[in-house]
Every structure is written in structure tokens, then in C-alpha cells.
Amino acid sequence: MTQIITPDTVVEKETMFSSIIDNYKKTEEDSHILWKKVDQTKPTDFIQYVDKLTKSETIIELTQKSFERFSVAKGDKIIDLGCGAGKDLMALGAMTGETGEVVGVDLSQEMVNVASARVASQTHIRVIQGSADATPFPDNYFDRARCERLLQHVPKPSDFINEMTRVTKSGGKIAVTDPDWESSRVSGPESAEFAAITKAIFFDCKFNAHPSIGVNLKHYFKQNPSLSNIAIIPAMFTLNSLADANDILCLFSRADLACKQSLITADQLSTFKSEMIQRDQDGTFLFTLTIFTCIADVCKQ
Ligand SMILES: C[S@@+](CC[C@H](N)C(=O)[O-])C[C@H]1O[C@@H](n2cnc3c(N)ncnc32)[C@H](O)[C@@H]1O
């Protein structure tokens, strides 16, 4: 059932992500630090957040589409970098079968603990703690390497793409999925004032290291000479309720952050929220965001 939003319920619904986003620093340089510090902040909030996205239909569909293009065979070895609470490990393990091997890597020990418990029944799946740009595996160990919603948070995405390519053998594939946060759109008044507010919230307000990474993945892949047949699979996240937009894609938290960063005034923040609540109440609320998967063949000379 669709939840009716009032200013009070917004606050209640927002608490989980607000506690995460409050930690965001003002400067772009610092913005990648947040997801690096899961264990030092409130790990349960982060785990709940990734678990919430696990249930999103758009995420389920886009991951499924990327798996279809990934062409995993029984017996393959796969690495899932920044695997979080293990969203995709069981599905990958089903694709490789018990003759294969699936390794999840995450920087957060808390995420690793949760993910390990979830795959405990599968001896061919394991999860290790570490940074995904420096894994302990030899060159060409894996058939497939992937990561989902990781590169937006890291300081140097190229280092991670290079590491994925290093550990993947020639003839293998790598796949990266990330959003283009700057593609965020909401239905609202067709006025210059509202356009300026949404530009400040969706474009000027930086809340992670690489907000436009999704649309630039091809460019990053192209820099590695061992990657060929680079292809893009786009997916549009469409949310029809304000509750979901806040819960899943942090809409009001981002608006609050824009105000904190002095990109919009308190009055503009209030106007924005009122418009969103009004649209939600009259059934015309719409929020969209594009997420991209970039997939390529590994071809080493
Ligand atoms: C947004 S979550 C996505 C998790 C998972 N891929 C999913 O789809 O549910 C990003 C994850 O990357 C992890 N992370 C951040 N920096 C990392 C790094 N340098 N190496 C490995 N994992 C990292 C975080 O701990 C977090 O679990």
C-alpha cells in the first residue's frame, strides 16, 4: 500500500539515511570517505540501506540483465568487489555451481561478517575483507570480475578497474554498475526558480566522490588497453512515491545537504519539500535516475 507522506512521516522515514548522510563532508575531496568508514560510523544503518536496495525491482532487474550479458559458465571463478552484505553472492554461486568459486571482497568487516553468514551453507562462496583495488589474488585468477555501486564511492575508479582487469584472465569479462546521480529528475513546477533549486540539489550538491560515474564508465574502461567490446546497459530507476524516493534514493536528505552546503536557502528547501509532498498527495510524484552497467571483454596481449 502506498504510504501517505506528511512532514512528520518524512522525518521518521529519513532517519536511517540521514544518519548516514550527516557524515558527509562539505568538500568533494572528503566525500569518498563515508563508505570507507562503514565500521567506524553506524554499520547497521549501512547494512540496512544496502539490504533495502536489494529489494528494489529496478536493482533486481538491472543486476539480472547484467548477469545475462556476463555469460557465466559452470566452474567459473568470479570476484564481486565491494560486495556489501552479499546481495549477489548466492546468485553468482548458483551460476558457477559447486565446481566454481565465488569470492566477495569488502572493505567493511561488518559487511563481510553479514555476507559470510548469508553464504555459510555454500562452500564454494567466501567473503574476505580488504580493499578492492589491491586484492590478494594472482594475475588472471578469475573468469569474471564485477562490482555494483562501488566506484561512485572510491577516490580513484581507474585503480579498481585496473585491479579487476589484472585478476581476470584473457577471454574473461568485467562488469561495473553505477548510478549517474546527476541524472536525477523530479516532477515539479515548470519554472526557472524550481529548475534552479533542482539543479542545486541534483547537480551542484556533491554527496559522493563520483556522482556522474555511471555515464562515464565507458570512458574509464577505455583507458585500460586490455578491455575491448565495451558495452553499456542502461536502466532507469523510476519511483512514484515520495516515501520510496526518500527511503531508497535519499531525496530529502540530498535537499537537506544542499541547504547545509548553502547551495539553496532554507526557504527554497521548504518550497522544494512542499512541492514534493503536494505531488505525492495528488498522485503525480515522479523521481527518475539512470543507472548504467558497463561490461567489457578482457583481452591481454
Ligand atoms: C553502496 S555499497 C554496495 C554493496 C553491494 N555491491 C550491493 O550492491 O549491495 C558499497 C560497498 O563498497 C564497500 N567499499 C567501499 N570502499 C571499498 C573498497 N575500497 N574496497 C572494497 N569495498 C569497498 C562498502 O563497504 C560497501 O559495502
From TrEMBL:
GO terms for molecular function: S-adenosylmethionine-dependent methyltransferase activity. Residues 80-175 form the Methyltransferase type domain. SUPFAM superfamilies: S-adenosyl-L-methionine-dependent methyltransferases. Transmembrane segments: none annotated. CDD domains: AdoMet_MTases. This is Methyltransferase type 11 domain-containing protein.
